[in-house]
Design goal:
Blueprint (H helix, E strand, L loop, with lengths): L9 E3 L6 E3 L3 E2 L6 E2 L2 E2 L7 H13 L4 E5 L6 H10 L7 E6 L1 E3 L5 E3 L3 H15 L4 E7 L13 H12 L3 E7 L3 H8 L4 E5 L10 H9 L3 E2 L10 H14 L3 H12 L12 H8 L8 H8 L8
Parallel strand pairs: 3-6, 6-7, 7-10, 10-11, 11-12, 12-13
Antiparallel strand pairs: 1-2, 4-5, 8-9
Length: 299
């Protein structure tokens, strides 16, 4: 199979030897659901999940985003079953700072002691001696960045890095102030926040990170759209003979060379569609139309 990520190019994480294709894969949807409990328990089709992950690798993807609180534990265990022993160039990025309640809720687990335990959970369930990248997800607000010092948490992860359990550290759900605070303590290789063609509040941050060679990894490429914004995106997709997701991903890849995308899916068909976004050409007039989506009214 010919890798479909070539046209997206690659990015080397700062101060590392890790070069990844900019088109990655988010593993969140590998876990199942139990009634109203999302990202919970095993998938209905474990063999299908394993086949999907192997297709991810065969397609040229070498950056997988995960977390041990997906499932919980399920997603990492599936990754290990499907891919271990891991390809030498595969970079697995995980997140810490949350745990799951019995009702499926997402509960902050943000103390240094909880973060240390989470790192060990990730090590065990992924079956590795050291984690490539660990993202600290700020939990002062679950759904968006909120100010507050993350010094104790970053210090705890930095100590685990010194012990050789973590190779590199990233951040998620953070503000520029928190990024600066963390960088005073330890090198930061990536930032993972909510950003897409309709949600543009972090334009300046992305440019600042690009200047410093730090990766920016947006999540929810179609999240937070108003109906008018969704309609505008769909119109562009029809003109290009593509899906709205493909257009949204292609726009992100075009936006800045330090952006890495991690679309998630549990379907091989959708995986293949997503990867095709790296081959989608966006003419200048289309980019102008897409750039205008964020300015459209809210209803």
């Amino acid at each position: 199979m010919i890798a479909q990520t070539d046209l997206a190019g690659t990015f080397t994480l700062p101060d590392t030897s890790m070069t990844v294709n900019r088109m990655g894969y988010g593993a969140m949807q590998l876990a199942g659901r139990d009634g109203d409990k999302l990202v919970w328990g095993p998938p209905r089709d474990l063999d299908g999940a394993i086949a999907l992950l192997r297709e991810v690798i065969a397609s040229g993807v070498n950056h997988i985003d995960t977390a041990d609180f997906y499932g919980p534990h399920v997603t990492n265990q599936i990754i290990r079953k499907a891919l271990s022993p891991y390809p030498k160039d595969l970079v697995i990025v995980t997140k810490v700072s949350a745990r799951r309640g019995d009702d499926g809720s997402w509960i902050p687990a943000f103390s240094p002691e909880e973060l240390t335990a989470a790192v060990h959970d990730n090590l065990r369930n992924l079956g590795v001696d050291a984690l490539d990248v660990v993202n600290l997800r700020s939990m002062f607000s679950i759904h968006e960045p909120a100010e507050g010092s993350i010094e104790p948490q970053i210090t705890a992860l930095a100590e685990l890095r010194q012990k050789g359990l973590i190779r590199h550290i990233g951040l998620s759900n953070v503000s520029p102030t928190q990024i600066k605070e963390a960088r005073r303590i330890v090198p930061i290789v990536c930032v993972q926040n909510h950003y897409n063609v309709a949600h543009r509040t972090e334009d300046a941050l992305i440019d600042d990170l690009a200047h410093d060679g730090i990766a920016y990894v947006p999540f929810f490429p179609l999240g937070g759209f108003t109906p008018l914004q969704s309609g505008a995106l769909s119109e562009v997709a029809v003109r290009l003979g593509a899906t709205p997701m493909q257009v949204a991903l292609a726009w992100l890849l075009h936006r800045s060379p330090n952006i890495l995308v991690i679309p998630g899916t549990s379907s091989i068909e959708h995986l293949r569609e997503n990867l095709q976004a790296s081959k989608l050409q966006l003419p200048a007039e289309v980019i102008a139309d897409l750039d205008g989506i964020a300015a459209r009214p809210g209803n």
